Amino acid sequence: MRGGTRPDDLEYVGFWIRVVASLIDSLLALLVIAPIGYLVFGSRYFSGSAASQGPSDLLISIALPAALTILFWFARQATPGKMMFSARIIDADTGDVPSSGQWLLRYLGYFVSMLGLGLGFIWVGIDPRKQGWHDKIARTVVVRPRSRTVDPLGIVR
To answer: DSSP labels for the chain?
Structure first.
């Protein structure tokens, strides 16, 4: 296991922490996407639907968030929201860093998790390993150290 962390030193990250992490990530993404959308489309970016904005909007609203998310996964095994809770994504079988294919499957699995009013995300709350459908598809789990400290900025480590 990477970083010398033993499996006994880790715990699965549950539903509510992942919800808060996701909200943090969404707000941070909005801080990046909204100004770019405004620069490209002006104020009409905020009043129209994605279909009416054309291919540029697909790049800004769909491709850019996907790229940012996957880049964070590659670089840190987590998005900024997960990092605030010392959470990281690991291979469910080996505990190692997931492969490129697993990262891609995990992101595509988000769309599957949205089905049935987000049942795949809600699944995190009932699954013993706290895996959403996207985690199961990619064979990943979200973990964090059992013992954590809080630094002066309030970030859990």
So the answer is: -GGG--GGGEEE--HHHHHHHHHHHHHHHHHHHHHHHHHHHGGGGGTS-HHHH-HHHHIIIIIHHHHHHHHHHHHHSS-HHHHTTT-EEEETTTSSPPPHHHHHHHHHHHHHHTHHHHHHHHGGGT-TT---HHHHHHTEEEEEESS--B-TTS-B-
pLDDT given at position 82: 97
pLDDT in tens, 48-70: 654 457 788 889 988 999 999 99
Q: Is 18 exposed, middle or buried (0-12, 13-18, 19+ CB in 10 A)?
A: buried
Residue ranges of the chain with per-residue pLDDT less than 50? 3, 50-51
Quote the tokens at residue 22.
């996701």
Do you know the residue count of the chain? 157
